[in-house]
């Protein structure tokens, strides 16, 4: 080891949960976790040089940052499905829904997705970038160092571009990495004069070329559901978007099963929601290699069933968990709380939960350089003031991070 390089040694930590050596797909047991006791992390700039016993690393390196005793380290979390670029609030929708109103009734009373579209359109680029960065900062304090952010509340050329530019500009303010996704196929806009099929053609010909030109996003999403976009219309849309160089992800099987089949056929990176998936959809996803994303916050917000995470894992799927932070169905935005609650209902091991918000979630975004604490990976990690990693899910979000590091730099310390 060349000690002349700018190495920094962080530790000692009570436990380092590396997530190294675990498979991308399938069920996991806690015994499979590599947990280093009294460990250290050796940094080389923004990259991890080594993770090992602190005593062993300290013998070879003199530049020590610490000590950080009685604490646990995990890889930085990845929230691979959010809608945090929005304006307004849907608190009235929540109250009406809990009072027995259905979606169409809420929409008729001025609520629903379109109300968020109107509120988001009213924001300037600067305002939208600021609120997006603020929400990203809240997620960072939870230990989330990579955040996917969707458009989808603009729904015309000007406003979709504004939203994606706002995500780009929010990156200049945010300390977490933001990954932009175009969700122009969210719903058919009320002010679009044409059919669902015509609107999808409009996105292909008028919007996506501009997104590529400005390099605003490399990912395309669509809401495949009754009242949004039918599977038979979305598949050719995805195929054209993929031919243009976009990666694909799908809002699938939230209320009715159909979108997961599209995800498999389109070669999507992930199929997200899956609350209504049956064994047929579960098995199809397992064979396809599409990553299955559970969004427990939406189930909690809507009062509906959770995605069948246990069955998905047992069938051999790669299962991830994300917040789905949005103003309508999932306003909580608390990843560890949602993941821990899902674990209770679906009987998920700690290993399965942690994999779902680290390296498996990174894979769902096509990222191979994070989510694991090992040599060559980004030095993204979260530190908890506890002597056992099991306390983190056990306390269901009540235990908050002591510190968050991003690319080898401390970006958040709890007061």
From TrEMBL:
EC supergroup of this enzyme: hydrolase
One Pfam entry name: Amidohydro_3
SUPFAM superfamilies: Composite domain of metallo-dependent hydrolases, Metallo-dependent hydrolases
Keyword set includes Cytoplasm: yes
GO function terms (MF aspect): imidazolonepropionase activity; metal ion binding
Gene Ontology cellular component list: cytoplasm
Name by which UniProt lists this protein: Imidazolonepropionase
Record organism: Niabella ginsenosidivorans
């Amino acid at each position: 080891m060349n000690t002349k390089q700018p190495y920094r040694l962080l530790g000692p930590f009570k436990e380092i949960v590396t997530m190294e050596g675990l498979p991308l797909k399938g069920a996991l047991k806690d015994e499979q976790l590599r947990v280093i006791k009294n460990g250290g992390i050796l940094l080389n700039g923004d990259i991890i040089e080594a993770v090992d016993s602190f005593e062993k690393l300290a013998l070879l390196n003199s530049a020590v940052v610490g000590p950080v005793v009685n604490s646990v380290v995990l890889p930085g979390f990845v929230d691979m499905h959010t809608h945090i670029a929005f304006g307004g609030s849907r608190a009235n929708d929540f109250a009406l829904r809990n009072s027995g109103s259905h979606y169409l009734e809420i929409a008729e009373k001025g609520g629903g997705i379109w109300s968020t579209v109107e509120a988001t359109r009213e924001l300037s680029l600067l305002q939208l970038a600021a609120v997006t960065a603020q929400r990203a900062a809240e997620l960072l304090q939870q230990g989330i160092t990579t955040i996917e952010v969707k458009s989808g509340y603009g729904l015309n050329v000007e406003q979709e571009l504004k939203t994606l530019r706002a995500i780009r500009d929010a990156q200049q303010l945010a300390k977490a990495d933001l990954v932009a996704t175009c969700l122009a196929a969210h719903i058919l806009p009320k002010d679009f004069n044409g059919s669902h099929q015509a609107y999808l053609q409009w996105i292909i010909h008028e919007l996506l070329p501009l997104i590529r030109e400005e390099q605003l996003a490399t990912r395309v999403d669509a809401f495949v559901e009754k009242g949004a976009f039918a599977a038979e219309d979305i598949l050719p849309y995805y195929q054209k978007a993929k031919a243009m160089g976009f990666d694909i992800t799908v809002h699938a099987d939230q209320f009715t099963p159909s979108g997961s089949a599209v995800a498999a056929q389109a070669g999507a990176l992930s199929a997200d929601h899956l609350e209504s998936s049956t064994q047929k959809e579960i098995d199809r996803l397992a064979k396809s290699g599409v990553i299955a994303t559970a969004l427990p916050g939406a189930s909690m917000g809507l009062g509906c069933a959770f995605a069948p995470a246990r069955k998905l894992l047992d069938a051999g799927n790669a299962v991830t968990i994300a917040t789905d932070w949005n103003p309508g169905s999932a306003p909580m935005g608390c990843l560890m709380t949602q993941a821990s609650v899902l674990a209770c209902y679906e009987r998920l091991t700690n290993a399965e939960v942690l994999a779902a918000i680290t390296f498996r979630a990174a894979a769902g975004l096509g990222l191979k350089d994070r989510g694991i604490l090992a040599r060559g990976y980004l030095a993204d990690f979260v530190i908890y003031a506890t002597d056992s990693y099991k306390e983190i899910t056990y306390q269901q979000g009540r235990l908050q991070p002591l510190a968050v590091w991003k690319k080898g730099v401390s970006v958040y310390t709890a007061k």
